[in-house]
């Protein structure tokens, strides 16, 4: 057994050494229990929590995998492709040549190895299983959250009417191929569109566009719609739903985008949690990391994560934009101006949690880290 990542930037017991139930948002250590090639360059990695406690999540949520690669701490978000109504956890990951963590998982992960994850996080979920009919529209790796949701509905046994439209480049790139066939055989309306190379004897390759989508799902407007794929694909599906007359409140898209302007991102949430006094942009505050025994300076116009990095402190992080929740920590003293994008819940903020990646100090801080 190999532990592929250490407890990055954290002190205290983890994984198998944890005696009490893990707190929400805590780093969890998982053991790899199985690896399966599910499409070209795509593997499903199955896991079980080392601490023996349940890993609660909703279909469609994601976790951040924490990895130490070549001496660097890196966090990357991956959707849980497993389904809460079935045993075990799974990540289905496409190997991207420039993707440090995806190549690390593909090339180094073995059954019995352990990894650390933070989460689950994310609001691209079913919320309830009470709608009469659903449309799941996905491209490429975007199938992972919607397949998790579709399975969840099937397992609920309420006879939900499911339309599933999936776009992949070639037959070799179809993820969950056999499962899609089984879903179709059990009565779901499943269509796989191949965009670059057709299956033997199948229809010619063609891109999925709004007209084709509406021809495949003529009653799209009355369904609860979930879309996951690249930006152009998502806008095509959203436009098609809108043209068909769908209520925008019933159209759900995965909106995990890294690299934009966090404060200007659509749907961003500004949370003033814990603002104490008016701060000067030129003021500098101290941040005490209790468990590390380190005190650093943090200018009022710098995030706590940026200041920690400049001081040589490695904190867990991934998106650095308040989305993923990887950096979530507990503030035991002081106050911050936090502008997150859904990576933390109001209940967690009330409990003193904060996200160092999108929080600037308005006071001297004490952090339980
Ligand atoms: S690193 Fe993603 S929320 Fe802070």
UniProtKB/TrEMBL annotation:
Instruction: Pinpoint the FAD-binding FR-type domain residues.
Output: 25-127
What Pfam families has UniProt attached to this entry?
FAD_binding_6, Fer2, NAD_binding_1
What CDD domains does the record point to? Answer: fer2
Superkingdom field: Bacteria
Key words, A-Z? 2Fe-2S, FAD, Flavoprotein, Iron, Iron-sulfur, Metal-binding, Oxidoreductase
Q: Which cofactors?
A: FAD
SUPFAM superfamilies per the UniProt record, alphabetical? 2Fe-2S ferredoxin-like, Ferredoxin reductase-like, C-terminal NADP-linked domain, Riboflavin synthase domain-like
UniProt entry tagged with the keyword ATP-binding: no
Q: Where is this region: Disordered?
A: 1-23
One molecular function GO term is: metal ion binding
Give every 2Fe-2S ferredoxin-type domain span: 285-369
What is this protein's name?
Ferredoxin-NADP reductase
